[in-house]
Specification:
By secondary structure, the protein is α+β, with helices and mostly antiparallel strands. The chain starts with 12 loop residues before the first strand and ends in a 5-residue tail after the last strand. The longest helix is centred in the middle third of the chain and has 19 residues, at 174-192. The strands form six sheets. The chain has a five-stranded antiparallel beta sheet with strand order 5-6-12-10-11. A three-stranded parallel beta sheet has the order 1-4-2, covered by helices on one side. A hairpin with a 4-residue loop joins strand 10 and strand 11 (139-143). It is globular. The protein has seven helices and 17 strands. It has three domains: 13-61, Uridine Diphospho-n-acetylenolpyruvylglucosamine Reductase, domain 2, CATH 3.30.43; 68-177, Uridine Diphospho-n-acetylenolpyruvylglucosamine Reductase, domain 3, CATH 3.30.465; 211-275, Alpha-Beta Complex (Uridine Diphospho-n-acetylenolpyruvylglucosamine Reductase, domain 1).
Length: 280
Protein backbone atom coordinates (compact mmCIF):
# COMPACT_ATOMS: atom_id res chain seq x y z
CA UNK A 1 0.00 0.00 0.00
CA UNK A 2 3.00 2.30 0.18
CA UNK A 3 2.58 2.64 -3.60
CA UNK A 4 -0.95 3.96 -3.23
CA UNK A 5 -0.78 6.44 -0.33
CA UNK A 6 0.70 9.92 -0.20
CA UNK A 7 2.67 9.06 2.97
CA UNK A 8 4.40 6.26 1.02
CA UNK A 9 4.05 3.78 3.88
CA UNK A 10 1.88 0.74 4.47
CA UNK A 11 2.01 -3.02 4.22
CA UNK A 12 0.51 -5.40 1.69
CA UNK A 13 -3.22 -5.75 1.01
CA UNK A 14 -4.61 -9.20 0.26
CA UNK A 15 -6.23 -7.88 -2.93
CA UNK A 16 -6.26 -4.59 -4.83
CA UNK A 17 -9.21 -3.94 -7.14
CA UNK A 18 -9.70 -1.02 -9.55
CA UNK A 19 -13.25 -1.24 -10.99
CA UNK A 20 -13.55 0.18 -14.50
CA UNK A 21 -16.90 1.89 -13.88
CA UNK A 22 -19.79 2.00 -11.41
CA UNK A 23 -21.33 -1.23 -12.71
CA UNK A 24 -17.98 -2.98 -12.36
CA UNK A 25 -17.76 -1.59 -8.83
CA UNK A 26 -21.14 -3.04 -7.90
CA UNK A 27 -20.23 -6.42 -9.43
CA UNK A 28 -16.96 -6.51 -7.49
CA UNK A 29 -18.75 -5.70 -4.23
CA UNK A 30 -21.29 -8.45 -4.89
CA UNK A 31 -18.46 -10.96 -5.38
CA UNK A 32 -16.65 -9.84 -2.23
CA UNK A 33 -19.83 -9.98 -0.17
CA UNK A 34 -20.66 -13.47 -1.44
CA UNK A 35 -17.17 -14.66 -0.54
CA UNK A 36 -17.23 -12.99 2.87
CA UNK A 37 -14.21 -10.82 2.04
CA UNK A 38 -13.98 -7.47 3.89
CA UNK A 39 -13.15 -4.40 1.83
CA UNK A 40 -11.75 -0.90 2.20
CA UNK A 41 -12.33 1.92 -0.27
CA UNK A 42 -9.34 3.97 -1.49
CA UNK A 43 -9.56 7.39 -3.10
CA UNK A 44 -6.41 9.44 -3.61
CA UNK A 45 -4.70 7.92 -0.56
CA UNK A 46 -3.88 11.41 0.73
CA UNK A 47 -5.65 11.22 4.07
CA UNK A 48 -4.80 7.63 4.94
CA UNK A 49 -2.29 5.79 7.12
CA UNK A 50 -1.99 2.07 6.41
CA UNK A 51 -0.24 0.14 9.17
CA UNK A 52 2.86 -1.91 8.38
CA UNK A 53 1.02 -5.23 8.60
CA UNK A 54 -1.16 -4.24 5.67
CA UNK A 55 -4.84 -4.80 5.01
CA UNK A 56 -6.65 -8.10 5.37
CA UNK A 57 -9.25 -8.23 2.64
CA UNK A 58 -9.62 -6.16 -0.51
CA UNK A 59 -8.74 -2.55 -1.23
CA UNK A 60 -11.07 -0.98 -3.82
CA UNK A 61 -9.59 1.95 -5.73
CA UNK A 62 -12.04 4.44 -7.26
CA UNK A 63 -9.50 6.00 -9.66
CA UNK A 64 -11.32 4.84 -12.82
CA UNK A 65 -14.60 6.41 -11.71
CA UNK A 66 -13.61 9.76 -13.16
CA UNK A 67 -16.55 11.08 -15.14
CA UNK A 68 -17.23 14.81 -14.74
CA UNK A 69 -20.37 16.41 -16.18
CA UNK A 70 -21.42 20.06 -16.16
CA UNK A 71 -25.18 20.42 -16.64
CA UNK A 72 -27.60 23.35 -16.75
CA UNK A 73 -28.08 25.93 -13.99
CA UNK A 74 -24.77 25.23 -12.25
CA UNK A 75 -25.41 21.53 -11.61
CA UNK A 76 -22.26 19.41 -11.58
CA UNK A 77 -21.98 15.63 -11.34
CA UNK A 78 -18.56 14.32 -10.41
CA UNK A 79 -17.72 10.67 -9.89
CA UNK A 80 -15.78 9.66 -6.80
CA UNK A 81 -12.44 9.18 -8.55
CA UNK A 82 -12.30 12.70 -10.02
CA UNK A 83 -9.36 14.62 -8.56
CA UNK A 84 -10.64 17.50 -6.45
CA UNK A 85 -8.17 19.84 -8.12
CA UNK A 86 -9.50 18.94 -11.57
CA UNK A 87 -13.07 19.62 -10.46
CA UNK A 88 -12.13 23.05 -9.07
CA UNK A 89 -10.12 23.99 -12.17
CA UNK A 90 -12.82 22.91 -14.62
CA UNK A 91 -15.52 24.73 -12.67
CA UNK A 92 -13.51 27.96 -12.58
CA UNK A 93 -12.73 27.73 -16.30
CA UNK A 94 -16.45 27.47 -17.02
CA UNK A 95 -17.26 30.43 -14.77
CA UNK A 96 -18.78 28.43 -11.93
CA UNK A 97 -17.99 29.62 -8.42
CA UNK A 98 -18.10 28.08 -4.97
CA UNK A 99 -15.24 25.59 -4.94
CA UNK A 100 -12.27 27.89 -5.44
CA UNK A 101 -11.29 28.16 -1.76
CA UNK A 102 -10.77 24.39 -1.74
CA UNK A 103 -8.10 24.55 -4.43
CA UNK A 104 -4.91 22.82 -3.39
CA UNK A 105 -6.57 20.26 -1.11
CA UNK A 106 -5.31 16.86 -2.33
CA UNK A 107 -7.46 13.83 -2.92
CA UNK A 108 -10.60 12.93 -4.81
CA UNK A 109 -14.25 13.90 -4.87
CA UNK A 110 -15.15 10.71 -3.01
CA UNK A 111 -12.74 11.50 -0.21
CA UNK A 112 -13.83 15.14 -0.06
CA UNK A 113 -17.44 14.00 0.19
CA UNK A 114 -16.85 11.36 2.86
CA UNK A 115 -14.75 13.60 5.11
CA UNK A 116 -16.35 16.93 4.16
CA UNK A 117 -12.97 18.39 3.22
CA UNK A 118 -12.63 22.07 3.85
CA UNK A 119 -10.81 25.22 4.85
CA UNK A 120 -11.95 28.14 7.01
CA UNK A 121 -14.93 29.63 5.24
CA UNK A 122 -15.77 26.75 2.93
CA UNK A 123 -16.47 23.03 3.16
CA UNK A 124 -17.12 20.64 0.29
CA UNK A 125 -20.49 19.72 1.75
CA UNK A 126 -21.65 23.33 1.39
CA UNK A 127 -22.05 22.75 -2.36
CA UNK A 128 -23.42 19.20 -2.32
CA UNK A 129 -27.11 18.64 -3.06
CA UNK A 130 -27.00 14.83 -3.15
CA UNK A 131 -24.68 11.86 -3.52
CA UNK A 132 -25.00 8.50 -5.22
CA UNK A 133 -23.68 5.84 -2.83
CA UNK A 134 -23.62 2.07 -2.48
CA UNK A 135 -23.10 -0.52 0.21
CA UNK A 136 -22.49 -3.23 -2.35
CA UNK A 137 -26.10 -4.25 -2.84
CA UNK A 138 -27.76 -1.35 -4.69
CA UNK A 139 -27.13 2.27 -5.58
CA UNK A 140 -28.90 4.82 -3.40
CA UNK A 141 -29.28 8.57 -3.88
CA UNK A 142 -28.79 10.33 -0.56
CA UNK A 143 -30.08 13.88 -0.36
CA UNK A 144 -28.10 16.46 1.56
CA UNK A 145 -29.86 16.03 4.96
CA UNK A 146 -29.09 12.31 5.03
CA UNK A 147 -25.41 12.98 4.32
CA UNK A 148 -25.26 14.80 7.69
CA UNK A 149 -22.15 16.85 7.00
CA UNK A 150 -20.14 17.95 10.02
CA UNK A 151 -16.63 19.14 10.69
CA UNK A 152 -14.48 16.72 8.63
CA UNK A 153 -17.25 14.15 8.74
CA UNK A 154 -20.36 12.84 7.02
CA UNK A 155 -22.76 9.92 7.29
CA UNK A 156 -20.62 7.99 4.78
CA UNK A 157 -19.00 5.71 7.31
CA UNK A 158 -17.44 2.28 6.81
CA UNK A 159 -19.54 0.02 4.62
CA UNK A 160 -20.60 2.76 2.19
CA UNK A 161 -18.82 3.97 -0.93
CA UNK A 162 -19.44 7.34 -2.55
CA UNK A 163 -19.99 6.85 -6.28
CA UNK A 164 -20.92 10.37 -7.40
CA UNK A 165 -21.37 13.82 -5.90
CA UNK A 166 -24.02 16.17 -7.22
CA UNK A 167 -23.23 19.82 -6.61
CA UNK A 168 -24.81 23.17 -7.29
CA UNK A 169 -22.46 26.04 -8.16
CA UNK A 170 -23.14 29.72 -8.88
CA UNK A 171 -22.07 31.95 -11.80
CA UNK A 172 -18.70 33.68 -11.55
CA UNK A 173 -16.19 35.52 -13.68
CA UNK A 174 -13.60 33.06 -15.07
CA UNK A 175 -10.72 35.54 -14.89
CA UNK A 176 -11.47 36.43 -11.28
CA UNK A 177 -11.83 32.77 -10.33
CA UNK A 178 -8.52 31.93 -12.02
CA UNK A 179 -6.83 34.67 -9.97
CA UNK A 180 -8.23 33.17 -6.76
CA UNK A 181 -6.89 29.74 -7.75
CA UNK A 182 -3.41 31.15 -8.31
CA UNK A 183 -3.48 32.91 -4.95
CA UNK A 184 -4.71 29.81 -3.11
CA UNK A 185 -2.03 27.63 -4.65
CA UNK A 186 0.71 30.14 -3.82
CA UNK A 187 -0.54 30.39 -0.23
CA UNK A 188 -0.50 26.60 0.20
CA UNK A 189 2.97 26.36 -1.25
CA UNK A 190 4.25 28.96 1.19
CA UNK A 191 2.77 27.34 4.28
CA UNK A 192 2.80 23.63 3.38
CA UNK A 193 5.90 22.99 1.27
CA UNK A 194 7.26 20.51 3.79
CA UNK A 195 10.27 18.23 3.66
CA UNK A 196 8.89 14.94 2.36
CA UNK A 197 5.91 12.71 1.60
CA UNK A 198 2.99 13.49 3.89
CA UNK A 199 -0.77 13.20 4.35
CA UNK A 200 -1.54 16.85 4.98
CA UNK A 201 -2.94 17.86 8.36
CA UNK A 202 -2.69 14.93 10.77
CA UNK A 203 -5.01 16.19 13.53
CA UNK A 204 -8.35 17.95 13.51
CA UNK A 205 -8.63 21.44 14.90
CA UNK A 206 -10.28 21.25 18.33
CA UNK A 207 -13.04 23.69 19.17
CA UNK A 208 -11.63 27.18 19.61
CA UNK A 209 -8.04 26.25 18.78
CA UNK A 210 -5.74 25.26 15.95
CA UNK A 211 -3.94 21.93 16.07
CA UNK A 212 -0.74 23.26 14.49
CA UNK A 213 -0.46 26.04 17.08
CA UNK A 214 -0.89 23.60 19.96
CA UNK A 215 1.77 21.29 18.51
CA UNK A 216 4.23 24.09 17.94
CA UNK A 217 3.59 25.52 21.41
CA UNK A 218 4.48 22.09 22.81
CA UNK A 219 7.88 22.41 21.14
CA UNK A 220 7.43 19.40 18.90
CA UNK A 221 8.48 20.75 15.52
CA UNK A 222 11.43 18.78 14.15
CA UNK A 223 11.00 15.78 16.48
CA UNK A 224 12.09 12.51 14.85
CA UNK A 225 11.01 8.88 15.16
CA UNK A 226 12.80 6.47 12.84
CA UNK A 227 12.35 7.78 9.32
CA UNK A 228 9.49 10.15 10.19
CA UNK A 229 9.59 13.74 11.39
CA UNK A 230 7.22 16.40 12.67
CA UNK A 231 7.72 19.09 10.07
CA UNK A 232 9.92 22.08 10.82
CA UNK A 233 7.61 24.15 8.61
CA UNK A 234 4.11 23.10 9.67
CA UNK A 235 3.56 21.51 13.07
CA UNK A 236 0.49 19.53 12.01
CA UNK A 237 2.37 17.72 9.24
CA UNK A 238 4.38 14.53 9.75
CA UNK A 239 6.74 13.80 6.87
CA UNK A 240 8.35 10.65 5.56
CA UNK A 241 12.05 11.42 5.16
CA UNK A 242 12.40 8.49 2.78
CA UNK A 243 12.58 5.37 4.93
CA UNK A 244 9.72 5.85 7.36
CA UNK A 245 7.38 3.10 8.45
CA UNK A 246 3.80 3.51 9.59
CA UNK A 247 4.96 2.60 13.09
CA UNK A 248 7.26 5.65 13.11
CA UNK A 249 4.37 7.94 12.19
CA UNK A 250 2.18 6.40 14.87
CA UNK A 251 4.89 6.98 17.48
CA UNK A 252 4.95 10.68 16.58
CA UNK A 253 1.15 10.92 16.56
CA UNK A 254 0.97 9.40 20.04
CA UNK A 255 3.68 11.73 21.32
CA UNK A 256 1.87 14.75 19.92
CA UNK A 257 -1.36 13.70 21.62
CA UNK A 258 0.38 13.04 24.92
CA UNK A 259 2.42 16.24 25.10
CA UNK A 260 -0.27 18.56 23.77
CA UNK A 261 -2.73 17.15 26.30
CA UNK A 262 -0.17 17.54 29.10
CA UNK A 263 0.40 21.19 28.24
CA UNK A 264 -3.08 22.32 27.24
CA UNK A 265 -5.55 19.75 28.51
CA UNK A 266 -6.73 19.20 24.93
CA UNK A 267 -6.69 15.72 23.41
CA UNK A 268 -6.10 16.06 19.67
CA UNK A 269 -8.09 13.71 17.44
CA UNK A 270 -6.65 12.37 14.18
CA UNK A 271 -7.94 13.79 10.92
CA UNK A 272 -6.22 11.03 8.96
CA UNK A 273 -7.86 7.63 8.74
CA UNK A 274 -5.77 4.80 10.21
CA UNK A 275 -6.41 1.32 8.78
CA UNK A 276 -4.83 -2.12 8.66
CA UNK A 277 -2.92 -4.04 11.26
CA UNK A 278 0.47 -3.78 12.89
CA UNK A 279 3.26 -5.92 11.54
CA UNK A 280 3.59 -9.24 13.36
Amino acid sequence: MSRHTSWRVGGVADAYLAPADRDDLLAALHRLRAAGVPWLVLGGGSNLLVRDGGVRGAVIATSALNRLDFLADGEVRAEAGVALGRLVEEAARRGLAGLELLYGIPGTVGGALAMNAGVPGREFGDLVEAALVTDGSVFELWERPRLAFGYRSSALTAGWIAVEARLRLTPGEPAALAAILRERLACRRRSQSVEGANAGSVFRNPAGAKAWELIEKAGLKGVLAGGAKISDIHGNFIVNLGQARAADILVLMERIQREVERGSGIRLEPEVKIVGQDED
